[in-house]
Design a protein that fits this description.
CATH superfamily of the largest domain: Transferase(Phosphotransferase) domain 1
Strand order of the largest sheet: 1-2-3-5-4
Radius of gyration: 28 Å
Structural class: alpha+beta
Distance between the termini: 80 Å
CATH topology of the largest domain: Transferase(Phosphotransferase), domain 1
CATH class of the largest domain: Mainly Alpha
Number of strands: 10
CATH architecture of the largest domain: Orthogonal Bundle
Shape: globular
Amino acid sequence: MTREIELILVYLAHDQGHLTGEQLDRCLKMAAAAEKSGKRVPVSEILLSGGFLTRTQFESVEALRLERGRDRLVEGYEIESVLGAGAMGCVYRARQISMDRPVALKILPPAWSADPDWVARFLREARATARITSPHIVQGYDVGTSHGIHYFAMEFVEGKDLGKILDERGRLPESEAAGIALQIARALEAVWDAGIVHRDIKPDNILVTSKGVAKLADMGLAKGRETVAAELTQAGAVVGTPRYLSPEQARGDELDGRSDIYSLGLTFYQVLAGEPPFRDESSAVLLARRLSEDVPSPKSECPELSDAVSRIVIRMTRRPPDQRYQSATELVKDLEALRAGKPLPSSAIQEPRTTDPTVILPPERPLDRRFGTDPRRAQWRPPDRPKTEPTPAQEPRLRERPATGEHPLPARRAASSRFVFFHVPGDDEAFFALIALKSDLVRASHVQTALDLQETQAEAGRHTSLDQILVDKGYLEEKHREKIRAVQARHRQFEGDILFGQIAVQLALATEEQVQACRKEQEQLAAAGEPPRLGDLMVSRGHITPEGKGRILAEQVRARRTEETRRFGSIALRCGFVDKEGLSGALRIQGQRIKEQKFPTRIGEILVEFGHLTQEESRAILRAQWRNELTGKPIPDLIAEILAEPA
């Protein structure tokens, strides 16, 4: 199937009355512009993402095109009907002539058949499927190329995907839901035995037959454990479906099978409760909440659920991977016990989750031990708190209520600790080091040395950027530094524009079609020079108002501040720099300022402004945050190492 044959879709859509003459011209121009710029964009993607056709219209046009050329599509297969269509191409019901059996035939769009990355992903799916043998995995039969297009033949499953079942029935009975979860957990056993992480567990990728047999499908994002780390050009990239991502997926971290358990836990929750947790959120807010909040018990939605099933879901969806089931086999045992009405193993019994939003993380370890060997540095303990209510003479004076209507915070007494000199790396240079780490271009020990050297130089009055130190020390090649900088710049705008578009749709300020059209125009403008920001482009095209753009930007800030606040507040609480009351008040003010688009909105700056932190303490927390992420050194050690001996 050539590019010309693919374009038949556009003309058929026009012939069927789905496209006007003007829309036909626009679609063809977009396809030509994409091809001229070297970007092979499938016509199917232009028709759907550009808002020219609905999914139903596209499927009807594709079925008509299929009727006119079914014998020329894939040699050895007889196409019967379209099972599904999307921007990534089509899956057909077909008959494998040599074996005389029905198959699901997945075809890579011609525009992507010339793209090595897409071909590699397509082949990876086929090979990953072929490596697994399980009655609960859709089996792969054949992969190859015919008439210049890539195809993958799979087992045809007579049934529906779990997403459609939930759309039709809502929540499922506990016993039925547990049966599906058990079968997919058994599928994950086979997936992991093959050394693979699926990375996209969700209802739409679970097929259920009329006899209740569940099968895991779509290995398109699956990767071997040895290759699951992000590549340099995708450093920190998020793969998977936002609503079902694990926290480590949302951060772009390396993954193992425990990530699949988390995603299956979210799916299990939805099947039991009828709705997923954290629903009705933009993708940006959803990911931020995924990083900062525990999944609630499904009993909060459906009190009639058993305690046992609730405990299983809670353990599956713990944020720290080491608090989840450590293998699919562990999960299978608990689900089997649940189905048999037997007591669960003690491993599934969990302490109840707190509902106090200010209790962000418990201490990871006792904080009263001595850390380090530097004689300048003291044993660190949280500052003392008064054990009795202060008398009026002792009570600190409250800050007067600001004219903006913000609630005042009780002023905090002066800090009892003193720090030795320390340096906080800038966000950009720390992010640079993070990309280098995730790309395996430097080791954590290299970054640790560079950070220490930067701190020593800063104390002497000289500042050298972190990337320069890494290059000077021979830890990083110059060519890699330039590549990381390019990735960093692209990531910053790409991430911001993706969030902007998602929030615009979520707030109903623009349609998905308008966002996609502007994104396409952005790509075309990028080929000619520096592309405009998505928000500016959407305002100039009349899709949103300047006021609407302001609302979206405010929501972007809120989404980004959520994870930042969780981490900063966690350290401040754990180290005794603030109490729950002070942090809760700061959170209220932060929310109000973001809503009103007032600054500052960083939680640390607000705590300093209202006297709950000194500037020095705030900087110490920021230093600990970055160093913990870059080197893995525990937070208590990082705070302790910069505390001076009391005078």
